[in-house]
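In response to the reviewer comment on reproducibility (Comment 2.3), we provide here a single inverse folding case reported in full, input and output, so that an independent group could reproduce the run without further information from us. The structure tokens appear first.
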């Protein structure tokens, strides 16, 4: 009866162990997804900063070319276009960051809910373990002294195994139910400093600035951190890869006969057309580790080609829009010149009309003055006629006799 109880409790503990291990796998995957999202957030900020720096350089070049190759109006239009691109870039980055942060928060909430259930599972497995110990003690109390040693020998392996598992679970519980290796620990420490490390050995700050390890040390980002790149997890990974490569030398030598039949043109063709997408796809597959990597690779390559065609279409549209913008700018410029010329002609006409009006007014004033002079002379003659009478010529005076 007691032995059946021991077996039953052992089965329950095994079920709890299996359940906890399954949850640990889920937590590990969620933790990986969270790290990927964190890297994407850093990369989005880095790409945004790089694009904004390029746009700033374009603006500076345009300002320098203001009095050389382009007119002021063309420069002003280009600067306005660059400002719009910068605003659009910032809006897109904000949308991407908001989406990534929402995904990260959602996964973190799920992560925390699983951790809460893990704590409950741990309490249950501890309770079952104590019940198992109590069952063994109960069986020893009811058994004969001769059988006590047999009972201990029989139950000891199971109890030791469960104790080892419980100690392991307790250790993981103290780390927040995270099974972290040295690379993840290094990543967490760097993240607390506001940094992310890339596979090239460079660091990205929270603002998206790309710096080297030496620059990070000079700017006190790595204060209190001993970072030996020769012994870093990145180089440890390269050592693992090299060891795996040495194990696959036989396979490589077999495949080399196939490559030897390929001429240099075929190799160049494959390198030119498949080198970049395959490198990017394999890097992402290594990070994500999907359940079906072949299906993931096919889907990734299809998506890569689709995005490539979409980029080409967008580039054609951008070129067409740029040409249309240049055409409209030229039309505006010609229209501006025509309006300036028309304004100059109108000003000349108005000045001529104003001068003609002044001349006409002067002529009228002169005529009025002449009329006034004539009227004055006529009035003078009339007055003289009234006083002296009408002039009839010389008259003879009669001689006076003495």
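Designed residues, in position order:
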């Amino acid at each position: 009866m007691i032995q059946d109880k021991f077996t039953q409790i052992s089965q329950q503990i095994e079920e709890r162990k299996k359940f906890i291990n399954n949850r640990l796998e889920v937590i590990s995957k969620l933790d990986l997804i969270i790290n990927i999202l964190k890297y994407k957030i850093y990369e989005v900020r880095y790409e945004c900063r790089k694009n904004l720096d390029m746009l700033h350089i374009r603006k500076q070049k345009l300002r320098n070319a203001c009095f050389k190759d382009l007119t002021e109006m063309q420069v002003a239009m280009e600067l306005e276009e660059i400002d719009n691109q910068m605003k659009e870039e910032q809006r897109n980055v904000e949308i991407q960051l908001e989406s990534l942060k929402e995904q990260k928060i959602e996964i973190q909430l799920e992560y925390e809910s699983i951790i809460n259930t893990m704590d409950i599972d741990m309490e249950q497995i501890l309770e079952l373990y104590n019940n198992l110990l109590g069952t063994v003690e109960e069986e020893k109390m009811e058994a004969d002294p001769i059988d006590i040693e047999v009972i201990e020998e029989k139950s000891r392996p199971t109890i030791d195994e469960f104790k080892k598992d419980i100690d392991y679970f307790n250790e993981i519980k103290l780390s927040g139910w995270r099974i972290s290796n040295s690379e993840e620990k290094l990543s967490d420490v760097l993240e607390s400093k506001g940094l992310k490390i890339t596979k090239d050995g460079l660091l990205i700050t929270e603002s998206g600035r790309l710096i080297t390890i030496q620059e990070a040390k000079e700017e006190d980002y790595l204060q209190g951190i001993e970072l030996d790149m020769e012994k870093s997890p990145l180089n440890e990974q390269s050592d693992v890869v090299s060891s795996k490569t040495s194990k696959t030398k036989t396979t490589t030598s077999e495949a080399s006969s196939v490559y030897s039949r390929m001429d240099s043109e075929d190799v160049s063709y494959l390198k030119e057309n498949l080198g970049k997408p395959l490198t990017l796809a394999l890097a992402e597959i290594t990070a994500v580790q999907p359940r079906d990597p072949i299906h993931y690779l096919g889907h990734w390559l299809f998506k890569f080609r689709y995005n490539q065609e979409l980029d080409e279409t967008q580039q054609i549209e951008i070129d067409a829009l740029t040409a249309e913008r240049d055409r409209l700018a030229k039309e505006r410029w010609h229209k501006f010149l025509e309006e300036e010329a028309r304004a100059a002609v109108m000003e000349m006409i108005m000045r001529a009309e104003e001068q003609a009006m002044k001349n006409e007014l002067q002529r009228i004033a002169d005529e009025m003055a002449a009329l006034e002079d004539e009227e004055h002379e006529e009035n003078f003659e009339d007055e003289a006629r009234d006083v002296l009478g009408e002039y009839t010529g010389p008259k003879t005076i009669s001689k006076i006799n003495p």
